[in-house]
Structures are given as C-alpha cells and as structure tokens.
What we know:
Blueprint: H1 14-18, H2 20-30, E1 33-36, E2 40-43, H3 46-54, E3 59-60, H4 77-86, H5 91-110, E4 114-117, H6 118-135, H7 142-158, H8 161-184, H9 193-197, E5 201-202, E6 205-206, H10 209-240, H11 242-250, H12 255-265, E7 271-276, E8 280-282, E9 285-287, E10 292-296, H13 297-300, H14 335-351, E11 356-358, E12 365-366, E13 374-376, E14 378-381
Parallel strand pairs: 2-10
Antiparallel strand pairs: 1-2, 3-7, 4-14, 5-6, 7-10, 8-9, 11-14, 12-13
Bound molecules: protoporphyrin IX containing FE.
Residues 53, 70-71, 82, 85, 218-219, 222-223, 226-227, 230, 268-269, 272, 297, 324-326, 330, 332-334, 337-338 line the site of protoporphyrin IX containing FE.
Amino acid sequence: MNDTPTPDWDPRSQEVQSDQRVAYDHMRETCPVAFSDYMHWSLFRHGDVMRAVQDHETFSNVVSQRLTVPNGMDPPEHTAWRPIVEKYFTQSRVDAFEPTCREIAVDLIDAQRGKVELMGALAHPFAVRVQCAFLGWPEDLAQALRDWVARNHQATLARDHAAMTRIAGEFQTLIRDTIAARVAAGATPETDVAVALTHETVHGRPLNEDELTSILRNWTVGEIGSIAASVGIIAEYLAANPQVQDRLRADPALAEAAADEILRLHGPLVTNRRVTTCPVEIGGRTLESGARVTVNWVAANRDPRVFDDPDAFRLDRNPEDNLLYGAGIHVCPGAALARMELRVVLEELLARTSSITCDPDRPARKAVYPASGFHEVHVLMR
Ligand code: HEM
C-alpha cells in the first residue's frame, strides 16, 4: 500500500462550495487528476472521465458493500439487472406518461405570477409529484420522499455513515408500507410501477425486498435530486438570458436540445464513483489498485478541449460529447424520461408566460455539494 497522497484540494471548502462550477473548472485546468481526503481521486477532464466510464474493467462500480441495483454493480451481475430496469423507461412508456407530466407542470406554473422563488414553487414540487405519478403512487407521499432526499443529502455531505444507514432503513420501511398499502387498495402491476417490480425475476427467482428497495432508491435519488436541480438551472438560465428565451419562444421545437445544452453548461449531477481494480496511470498520476475515484461530470462537460467556447450556448454541438446522462454501460437508463420531463417544463414555462426575468433584488443562491444548481432562484414571472 502507498502512503496517502497529500491533498491537492478540499471539495468541502467554502471556496469550492460557494461556486462549484468555477472551482471545478479551475481544478480541470490546474490539477486535472486531484487527490482529496473527502473524494480521494477526482477526474475533471472529459477524456479522463470518458476513459473511466468506458473501461469498466479497470474502473469498477462496486464501490461499497451496500447493495445498489444496478449502479453499484459490474458485469456479469450488472448485465443481469440492467434490462429489468431499462424496460420501465422505454420510449412508449415515456410517451404515455407525457400528458400526466404536462398536467403537473401546467398546474404548478399557472399558480405562479409576479415574484416567485422557483426552487420551492416549481422545481422541488415538480420533481416529487412527477416521481410519485410515474410510480403510480399517491401525491401525499411527495412530502415524505422530499424530506427523505433532503436528509440523505445532508448525511452524504457529512459522510455520516450511521445516519446514512438509518436513513436507508427509513426508506426501506417507507417502500414496504407503501407497496403493502397500494396492494391492499387494489393496485396492480399495470397501474403501479413499484407493484410491477415485485413481479420481476432475476436469475430465475423473484426480487427480494433489499433489491426492490435498492432499485426504487436509485430511481428516487436519481429522479428527484437531478430533476429538481435541472428545472432550477434551466429556469435561472432562461431568466438570465432573455435572448435564449426569445429564440425558444419563437421555435419551441428546440426545447429538448436547449435543455441538454443548458445542462451541459451547468450540470445538475456533480459526481459518480468508481474504484480501480489494478494500478492505473491517468493524467500523469499513478493510482494504486483499490483507489477510490470520482468522475466530475460538471467539469468534464465544460472542457474546452472538447467543447469549443465552452461557456457559449450552442445547439450545433455533437450530442455524443455531452456527458449529461453519462456514457458506457451505466449510461442513464432514465434519460428518455428525464429529457421528456425537462422539455415539458421548459415548453410550459415559455408558453404560459410572456417573460421571465431575474429578480434584481434577490440574486439566485447556489446549491452546495452533493447538490448542484441552485438553492433559491428568484424571478419575476409575467
Ligand atoms: C436530469 C436528470 C438525470 C441526470 C442528469 C442523470 C444522470 C445520470 C448519469 C450521469 C448516470 C451514470 C452514472 C454512472 O456512470 O455512475 C445515471 C445513471 C442512472 N440513472 Fe440517471 N439521470 C437523471 C435522471 C434519471 C431518472 C429520471 C431516472 C429514473 C427514474 C434515473 C435512473 C438512473 C439509474 C437507475 C442509473 C444507473 C444505471 C446503471 O448503473 O446501469 N436517472 N444517471
């Protein structure tokens, strides 16, 4: 075993947390493979992140003892589980869900005029209501899910393992009680995604409760945190860039590509983890076998080596380069669902207002890691 390297940076410092994007851009340019006590090895450049996510034999996803289906798995286990997850996000399921998603967006947007704080009024409620609707769950679960995600974020930031275990247990209880109540109320696999999952099989046997909970936890963390952050980032970007707003109002067909590009400029998901299975040379550094690695999506997606004029909003970039939904075997299976949800919010935000501007009296407040985007976005909606 080598000695622990001297830290190159502190991801939880005030300087980094006050503006994550600026800090990660700086790291990418000055120390692209950096060690910290908190994250161990961080990869900031697009090329290094691509290498890690595409070489899953060297950069394993089995980063902890905890069962994480399918994100914490490598082949062949990942290969057995991935189709079970994928079939819930087919284009036909996403299309069938679009009208419900639009109703939720319209309901929330129509309720807001004048001075609005959009994270509380739109981003968070949209993310949890859509998640409940997708799972076929009643909306009164939305607050419980939202509280759970907030507590989980707190514990993750603090690396409080006891709290993380307790919070994971609470989620399992919430899922168990919800599914039992749904079945008692007559829910079927056709009406209720969570009930449908209880009928899935893997390796010729039914899923056990830990596996079921893990799948739903992955969807819940993935969906609620990233979708809420994305809605806030998109809304803030529109408010701060009236020319982009005008262009999209004139041509709403650009909405989906615009959302992808706005979220390339400002990534809603900061990191994912890997662990090396052998010694690795990367970015001029030597990582030992078993080294913990984080890929930094925010920095990679703003890398000038790949994105010419990376701060510019451009719709003519190569979509393949955008790492918003990842790459390799763990690429986001919920991408079609997420894209539809964000397109619908963007379309309705523009269609149901004549202008959205930043509130000059109240600047947006940025979110801190592990969240991205904004804590508060104050706008004037007309
Ligand atoms: C804007 C919203 C979203 C973003 C930016 C996002 C991004 C990502 C990224 C970058 C990965 C790859 C992680 C890695 O390589 O370790 C991923 C994986 C995953 N995402 Fe998403 N995601 C979003 C929404 C969703 C939604 C809506 C769902 C499902 C409800 C979802 C479920 C998953 C799952 C299950 C995985 C793990 C896949 C695997 O390991 O094979 N995500 N996501």
